[in-house]
Amino acid sequence: MKAKGILDAFRLDNRSAIVTGAARGLGQAIAAGLAEAGANLTLVDILPADQTRDLIQGLGRKAVCVKADLSSLECIGSITDAAVKAFGSIDILFNNAGIIRRAPLQEFSEKDWDDVVNINLKTLFFLSQAVAKIMIRQGRGGKIVNTASLLSYQGGILVPSYTASKSGVMGLTRLMANELAPHGINVNAIAPGYMATDNTAPLRADEARNKAILDRIPAGRWGQPDDLKGVAVFLASDASSYMNGYTVAVDGGWLAR
Fold first, then answer.
1. Global pTM?
2. Active-site residue identified among 153, 162, 194, 246
3. Domain 6-197+225-251 adopts which CATH fold?
């Protein structure tokens, strides 16, 4: 058999991928990148993901939308069932969905804590657990990729539940990698830097904060969702088959400063 060339190792032809938080922003770009590499997509979001579905279908791939409230574990079965029904298997899970709440530490509410931790960490783990069981039954390995954050490395300010959840994502990425590697399942994460998305709109609108952030980024600009496509495809493909438990920062050099 002819050895697979390096560019072929990045191909995702006919693989079935789930992307959460796929309606817009980073999730939409990640889903589009996977589709460009050949994958078919199950798009999960509480918001309508029709725009992302149309984008993927325009690339010649298949896509189905699943409306799901990821603050509750009740949606997990419907997500996995939809992916298997549509495409017969699950080869890639991209846990991208996440929310943020901002308030001073002294004023931060229990609701804002629970809302963020439930979506960003709790459901991430239990959806990964459900998908891992399916991947193990399929017997051909798979890829789980989590969206971490620069606040997996740093403390930040005014976002205690977000910092706690994203620090937890990095830790869970390592743990899941350790337990799932024997089954041929690679688990890694992406830590986006300061990206121009809805989550960062308040920061970009604050002239002083915006300037302070840009002054710290060696690349001199906010990241764009499309900046994640390359690393997303890499971590979802055979090209990263010897990577386990690593969190890759895509941050314009922020952490190197």
1. 0.96
2. 162
3. Rossmann fold (3.40.50)
